[in-house]
């Protein structure tokens, strides 16, 4: 039953089920057309995130967006050829297990830490209220500050312990025996796994260290403009009075800082201004 998950679920189990339908050829065409369109749709969102980030950071200011998008697609297509050779399924398993799971979990964990413990959960709630007109409830604030980081940290630690105890391997097909056997990843694969994970998460400490020493990775002299006064008037927002529950749960102080061991800074000057002009 190893095929009942991952790619085997779509290309073996579902395919076998469709073969039992009346007019199986018609349903097969629809099924694989659906898979194709789902893949294209996912690529739209993923690629747009990469292209928009590069354009906003002005890494290639003189390059047209169409050419930049085409270049990124060409690079991604070239990399994807690694999945098309005889051992492509094993490379896919390696990427599937390590390029998304661990990096996404670590990035999401530090996002919660950055928002709740560095930026400040009160300021974050104020921003949401300003943009949507509705202030998030106490349940969401507790989730963002305590429950979500704890859950992600638990999953991350459990995953690391599992790898340490059981080792990191893959199911390889042994043609002579007609079965699959668990094998350990070779050394070059372990190096690739480390590169896949570090390529995504290494920027977190790098950017943090650069900000600590006031080193600008990408220079941006333009100050963003945000219609805070218009939104406050539109939503009818009044200054939020911190409740006793919020003070006890999030250790919010009278000066606006919060936290028990590492208090965040109080409201910045930008937070006190209704509108910020572009300089």
Automatic annotation (TrEMBL):
Keyword Transmembrane helix belongs to the record: yes
Pfam families cross-referenced by the UniProt entry: SNF
GO cellular component: membrane
Record's keyword annotation contains DNA damage: no
Membrane topology term: Multi-pass membrane protein
Organism of this sequence: Trichogramma kaykai
Keywords in alphabetical order: Membrane, Metal-binding, Sodium, Symport, Transmembrane, Transmembrane helix, Transport
SUPFAM superfamilies: SNF-like (SSF161070)
Domain of life: Eukaryota
Binding-site positions, Na(+): 38, 41-42
Entry's transmembrane regions: 29-55, 67-95, 101-121, 142-165, 185-206
Molecular function GO labels: symporter activity
Similarity-based family: Belongs to the sodium:neurotransmitter symporter (SNF) (TC 2.A.22) family.
The protein's name in its UniProt record: Uncharacterized protein
Cellular location(s): Membrane
């Amino acid at each position: 039953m190893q095929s009942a998950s991952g790619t085997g679920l779509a290309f073996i189990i579902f395919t076998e089920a469709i073969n039992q339908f009346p007019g199986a050829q018609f349903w097969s065409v629809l099924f694989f057309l659906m898979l194709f369109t789902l893949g294209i749709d996912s690529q739209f969102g993923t690629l747009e995130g990469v292209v928009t980030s590069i354009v906003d950071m002005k890494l290639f200011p003189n390059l047209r967006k169409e050419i930049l998008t085409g270049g990124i697609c060409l690079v991604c297509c070239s990399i994807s050829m690694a999945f098309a050779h005889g051992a492509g399924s094993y490379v896919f398993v390696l990427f599937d297990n390590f390029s998304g799971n661990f990096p996404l979990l670590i990035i999401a964990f530090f996002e919660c830490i950055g928002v709740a413990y560095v930026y400040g959960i009160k300021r974050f709630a104020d921003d949401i209220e300003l943009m949507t007109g509705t202030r998030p409830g106490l349940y969401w604030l507790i989730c963002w500050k305590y429950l979500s980081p704890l859950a992600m940290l638990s999953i991350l630690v459990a995953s690391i312990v599992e790898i340490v105890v059981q080792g990191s391997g893959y199911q390889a097909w042994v043609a002579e025996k007609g079965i699959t056997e668990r094998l350990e990843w070779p050394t070059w694969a372990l190096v690739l796994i480390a590169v896949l994970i570090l390529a995504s998460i290494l920027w977190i400490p790098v950017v943090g260290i650069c900000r600590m020493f006031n080193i600008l990775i990408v220079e941006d002299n333009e100050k963003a403009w945000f219609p805070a006064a218009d939104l406050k008037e539109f939503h009818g927002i009044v200054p939020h009075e911190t409740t006793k529950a919020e003070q006890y749960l999030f250790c919010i102080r009278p000066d606006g800082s919060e936290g028990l061991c590492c208090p965040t800074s109080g409201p910045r000057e930008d937070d006190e201004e209704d509108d910020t002009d572009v300089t």
